[in-house]
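Q: Protein A?
A:
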Amino acid sequence: MWVSKLQLENFRNFTALQVDLLPGTNIIHGDNANGKTNFIEALCFCATGKSIRANHDKELINFNAEESHLQAVVCLDDYWDLGGNYQNIAGFSENLGYVDKIGENVDNLAEFGGIGNVENGQNREISQNAEKSQNMGKTAENAKNPKNFAENLETAEKSQNMGKFAENAENPKNFMENAKIAEKSQNTGKFAENAENPQNFVENVEILGNNMKNRETSQTVQKRRIDVHLFRDGKKKGFAIDHIPLKKLSELFGSMLVVVFTPENLQIVKGGPAERRAFVDLEICQLNGVYYHALRQYYQALRQRNNLLKSIAKDRKLRETLEIWDVPLCENGAVIMAHRAAFIDELGALATELHAAITGGKERLNMTYKPQIIGGIDEYHDRLKRNTERDIILGSTSAGIQKDDILFKIDGTDARTYASQGQQRTAALAVKLAEIALIKQRTRRKPILLLDDVISELDEHRQNFLFRNIGELQTVITCTGVEDVLRKVSGNIIRVENGRFYGKKRG
């Protein structure tokens, strides 16, 4: 997936902004304090409903306004999501699993069925090359009759790779390739009329080609519009997808998948447990609405329990009501622990592989989930009971998922304590790349990568590894020096100054 447009009104330092983004790399550059990170924050907020910096939503609203509106248009492009090579005929089979060079060198229409002259000089039937095509069954039967040209093209409509019409239109020898790339046309009405005359071959091709000039109007590109409304006066923030209001925030998750990489993320190994929990919670929420619901219910109950603990210190009779909040803590806590354990197992396995690739196999990274309470609901309940007196004294709950942590080890040694800064950054990079891989595995979609001023924090080797592994994603990079980034990757260049975006060109 990729974002084609972001529109902001009274968000941070943007009073009114509309930016068109492209698939691939978008480089936003400018001096500090001009709005680059605000732009990244807006994209992330549209995806998650949460700020990557602010504790309160009202902090996101422009000082001179009472409300703010964000709008993102997300493209769910099957071509892009399946491999990023939607314009590459040669990558057709690899990306889609359909037909690969099924008859690239066919010399005449009669050989359309595949009993012809193919590149390797051997005769092959079309069925051998089209095993995953969904609607090619009648091709061989119709191939020997040019009158069935229209039917052949109709049965080829499940193919998903268009692009070389102009080049092939004048040459009937490319009939086979044109048929393959003719899949998603919406205007085949004149095929029947033209089918009996092979001279109308070019006209048929043009009918298809004209419908594919704009890729975004193709049936393969689905768009969804995400709207966010923020209010300063305490009103509940509002979300809508395709103009339909969402009843709860969990309905937003998954509609726009993002991976955010900031300089602060480089501290995920060295920082405190709260930072690591926040990282894990954000990513699981994007992938699982059940997790978000359990997390929300848990922290609502936790706040109520902590308030009650403070009241019990003044009135011991209230202790009998503590069980009211212990139950939701135990039930939701057990759900959260199970999801965290599964997520970290999957993420850790991917991070270990990527870390080995970055280091050339010289070091081994391991991630381990460290829950404070080991077990399920019963163990959770027992721990709360044992800690009751202590909790009353402290005025807060001392045990639970709010105390969980993730342990990073490099070659069996605690990376937080003993790893060098370079080793910690390598581990953080591996984790972020693993996050991308995990989202792709679970959703079969490619997330949008947001790199906020992080390139300058990585050395040459890590920069090269990062760019080699993100080429298939839409990436939004913010930086101060665009020249340094352009040495690594070309992209759509946008300059930002005082909350305004200028000049868009291909670098």
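Q: Protein B?
A:
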Amino acid sequence: MAPVVPQSSSFTAEKGLRALLGLFVLGAGISEALAVEPVVRSLEALGYPRTLIPLLAAAKLSAVGALWGPAPTWLREWAYAGLTIDFVGATYSFFASGQLLLPDVVLAPTCLVLTLLSSVLWRRSVAVTPARIERATPTPGSDHSVARGQPS
């Protein structure tokens, strides 16, 4: 079973960025789920079909759940990866198509930067903790030492 990301009550820059990113993504996800007209027009102006909107909404709302809730480490990594792909694609689409629509052309790169900063800070916060080191260190006589052919 994958370890669950620990939830601490103290405020940090990582949590603040994650909260801000989550608000942006939640707003976008709700707008896409409701198929708000400016969202539909923006995607159609870029040449994307309407059928893509519910998929984007589900992905963004799922990512918010993984960012804000107690989630396994791998799920949060996937949420950050998915958001990165989404915002890189959106930023590229706006500039490549020449459809520099405000506020989208500003929000997509802004959300990309927030995603990257939040991801880096989060990975630093969960990278090395004493509990992770203790769980990863094999003990003499455990299955880890037997699998390597070491005496128990």
